[in-house]
């Protein structure tokens, strides 16, 4: 599998939004048209997209099954989606509704043994573990949960090897400090992850501003990049991002 560009839609209250550094009080709204936007992604040439239920990320209970199904049926996109995944039944429902991969975040940090069981049951190709991270004053990469509102008391470096040993294939890692900030992806973080888990496909997320950032993520060894605010605000065209996904 080559480098994948994931145009992203974060949904809160039915609207397409972006949060700055995961802060629900720092929300920017971009309209209430997620399905047409997804269709436009497909028309531009995307094969995948990333769909996030921000309401569920905070409260639990994925609420986008209908939208997920509509996107999967009408656009031809493969949808990687998450937010509020708390149980095996959540995963099964999302896959049945049309998800190509289910993203598991907070639970993957709080209950790794549970998510490791899901990797075994559903297969490494159907689960993306999201270890969103924030560097503390000592330089350790902490793993906040509950919509990034509280630290879980475990580090990225301690937890990731457990998933590697369990057959993890897809890792989504957001540097929270850069999320929605248009400050560029944290290439040092992704180099660290590649060294820590060389067999895992790492998706860069947070800070991508332009086509050069997409190229840098690919050249850093990432398997994909999630595009959010820059795409929504027209700072980066999906066409240009997809072009950068191709090897020279």
Automatic annotation (TrEMBL):
GO molecular function: 1-(5-phosphoribosyl)-5-[(5-phosphoribosylamino)methylideneamino]imidazole-4-carboxamide isomerase activity
Gene3D superfamilies, A to Z: Aldolase class I (3.20.20.70)
Catalytic residues of the enzyme: 10 (proton acceptor), 132 (proton donor)
Keyword Amino-acid biosynthesis: yes
GO CC, any one term: cytoplasm
Pathway listed: Amino-acid biosynthesis; L-histidine biosynthesis; L-histidine from 5-phospho-alpha-D-ribose 1-diphosphate: step 4/9
Matching InterPro entries: Aldolase_TIM, His_biosynth, HisA/PriA, HisA_bact_arch, Isoase_HisA-like, RibuloseP-bd_barrel
Chain segments annotated as coiled-coil in the UniProt record: none
Pfam families in the cross-refs: His_biosynth
Compartment annotation: Cytoplasm
Catalysed transformations (reactions): 1-(5-phospho-beta-D-ribosyl)-5-[(5-phospho-beta-D-ribosylamino)methylideneamino]imidazole-4-carboxamide = 5-[(5-phospho-1-deoxy-D-ribulos-1-ylimino)methylamino]-1-(5-phospho-beta-D-ribosyl)imidazole-4-carboxamide
EC number: 5.3.1.16
PANTHER family cross-referenced by the UniProt entry: 1-(5-PHOSPHORIBOSYL)-5-[(5-PHOSPHORIBOSYLAMINO)METHYLIDENEAMINO] IMIDAZOLE-4-CARBOXAMIDE ISOMERASE (PTHR43090:SF2)
HAMAP family on file: HisA (MF_01014)
Family named by the database record: Belongs to the HisA/HisF family.
Designated name of the protein: 1-(5-phosphoribosyl)-5-[(5-phosphoribosylamino)methylideneamino] imidazole-4-carboxamide isomerase
Gene it is expressed from: hisA
């Amino acid at each position: 599998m080559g480098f994948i560009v994931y145009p992203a839609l974060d949904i809160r209250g039915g609207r397409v939004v972006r949060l700055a550094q995961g802060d629900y009080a720092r929300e920017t709204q971009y309209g209430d048209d997620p399905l047409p936007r997804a269709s436009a992604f497909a028309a531009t040439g995307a094969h995948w997209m990333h769909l996030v239920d921000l309401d569920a990320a905070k409260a639990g209970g994925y609420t986008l099954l209908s939208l997920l199904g509509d996107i999967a049926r009408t656009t031809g996109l493969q949808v990687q989606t998450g937010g509020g995944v708390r149980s095996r039944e959540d995963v099964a429902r999302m896959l049945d509704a049309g998800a190509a991969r289910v993203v598991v975040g907070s639970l993957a940090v709080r209950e790794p043994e549970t998510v490791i069981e899901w990797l075994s049951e559903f297969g490494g190709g159907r689960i993306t573990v999201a270890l969103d991270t924030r560097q503390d004053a000592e330089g350790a990469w902490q793993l906040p949960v509950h919509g990034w509102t509280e630290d879980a008391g475990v580090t990225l470096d301690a937890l990731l090897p457990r998933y590697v040993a369990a057959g993890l294939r897809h890792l989504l890692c957001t540097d929270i400090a850069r999320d929605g900030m248009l400050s560029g992806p944290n290439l040092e973080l992704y180099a660290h992850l590649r060294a820590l888990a060389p067999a895992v496909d790492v998706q860069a997320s947070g800070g991508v501003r332009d086509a050069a950032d997409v190229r840098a993520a690919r050249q850093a060894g990432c398997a994909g990049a999630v595009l959010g605010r820059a795409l929504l605000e027209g700072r980066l065209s999906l066409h240009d991002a997809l072009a950068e996904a191709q090897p020279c």
